[in-house]
Design a protein that fits this description.
The longest helix has 16 residues. The chain has 63 residues and is mainly α. The protein contains 2 helices and no strands. The protein has a domain of 31 residues. The protein is flat.
């Protein structure tokens, strides 16, 4: 870390607190909305993609 930063433990403690309180999740959500508005779109997405996992089965199953 640069010499003008606080000690590693202090920086990590702040990061861990913000992570545990969900600050980074809220920042990401809000920044995404702001970027969408800047591009002329609504802040909330109007569509989504749902992906399902294929389940492989066998046709040769004994009773």
């Amino acid at each position: 870390m640069p010499h003008d930063f606080p000690p590693h433990g202090t920086v990590y403690a702040h990061h861990a607190t913000w992570r545990d309180e969900g600050i980074f999740v809220h920042l990401n959500y809000n920044l995404t909305g702001l970027a969408r508005v800047k591009e002329g779109r609504k802040p909330e997405p109007t569509a989504c993609i749902i992906d399902t996992q294929s389940v492989k089965t066998s046709t040769d199953v004994s009773p």
